[in-house]
Amino acid sequence: MALSAINARPYLLITSAKVVHMKSAIKYSAEVSAAIAASMPIVALESTIISHGLPRPSNLAVAIECERIIRDRGSIPATIALLDGVIHIGLEAHELEAIANRDDISKASIRDLAIIVAQGKSAATTVAATAHIAAMSGIRVFATGGLGGVHRGANESFDESADLTALSQVDMTVICAGVKSILDVHATLERLETLAIGLVGYKTNRFPGFYLTDSGYALEHRVDSADEIAEIVQARTAIGTQFRSLIVANPVEKEMDKVRHDEFLATGLANAALNGIDGKAVTPFLLEHFHTASEGESLDINTEIIKSNCALAADIAVALQ
Ligand code: PSU
Ligand code: MN
């Protein structure tokens, strides 16, 4: 894709037959611009995990560490977020800090993007929104912690993350530790199949359960190296199935104690119901509950997950080059 064309093109707002040129809606960081020009491997990173998934001040430290891990392995990190109405692909240090610490950062899915841009507001991007923006920029590898999915009770609440439909519409390889046990894992796996989203386990035959290495469900496909994943990505292009994402499920090395995990999950779900938490507030609420109830253990595991996914994503991006 002609990236410079996207960058240079101001977006047009047509009001009563008048064409008003607004400021460019997309800005690349200096590092990402240079990487695109030099055809270097790039890894996209989401920002919701920074603003709404991890507590301050570890959120900023983890975000910085993730970018460093990716650079150390020969790839360039592109953390994606919206700041004051501009979509940022790659954040400068002060912008990363703003996403971590400012109080006016909302959580944006794909449907929110145009609204936030037009209104000049700021937001962190979910997996759905990040994948959309990254794909639009020609970035094809994306590291995150856990995907959104089908929530428990979705047969009545209809609460299914837009992450699933978004990933059924873009050419993206997403590295994650499965989906969190706060979701209906079985229903999520069924939806991934329906939406024709590819799924492989990295060095495992079991679908990981985020804090746990095994969610209780088997995986049909297993891969054991970044090169193997790159071959799958390329095979998709050759046979025309690349416009739906490939998920690489990478289990955490040291999992949480299963009994403690189930206890935190039960109290978290009960608290959410008690407090009438719903919609997009559910995921941040349950994550926060895990962090508080486990006295930081879930935060440490969460951090390990993201770092490990960043490392694998960087290796895949390099293998694809
Ligand atoms: N999983 C995590 N941490 C997170 C999220 C998921 O381990 O912070 C975020 C991701 O940005 C994901 C979003 O895209 O939650 C899903 O939110 P929802 O269920 O409202 O679609
Ligand atoms: Mn939801």
Largest sheet: 11 strands, mixed
Strand content: 15-25%
Look at the structure and give the mean pLDDT.
Answer: 92
Which small-molecule species are bound to the chains here? pseudouridine-5'-monophosphate, manganese (II) ion
CATH names the topology as Indigoidine synthase fold
List the domain count as a whole number.
1
The number of E-state strands comes to: 15
Distance between the termini: 16 Å
Order of helices and strands: HEEEHEHHEEHEHEHEHHEHEEEEHEHHH
Could you give me the name of the CATH homologous superfamily? Indigoidine synthase domain
Query: Could you list the spans in which at least 5 consecutive residues all have pLDDT below 50?
Result: 1-21
- Which CATH class applies here? Alpha Beta
Give the topology.
Layout: H1 3-8, E1 12-15, E2 18-21, E3 26-28, H2 30-37, E4 42-45, H3 48-53, H4 58-72, E5 76-83, E6 86-89, H5 93-101, E7 106-108, H6 113-118, E8 123-125, H7 127-136, E9 141-143, H8 154-157, H9 162-167, E10 173-176, H10 185-194, E11 198-202, E12 206-209, E13 212-218, E14 222-223, H11 226-239, E15 246-249, H12 258-274, H13 282-293, H14 297-320
Parallel strand pairs: 3-6, 4-5, 4-9, 7-8, 9-10, 10-15, 11-14, 11-15
Antiparallel strand pairs: 1-2, 5-6, 5-8, 12-13
This protein binds pseudouridine-5'-monophosphate and manganese (II) ion (MN).
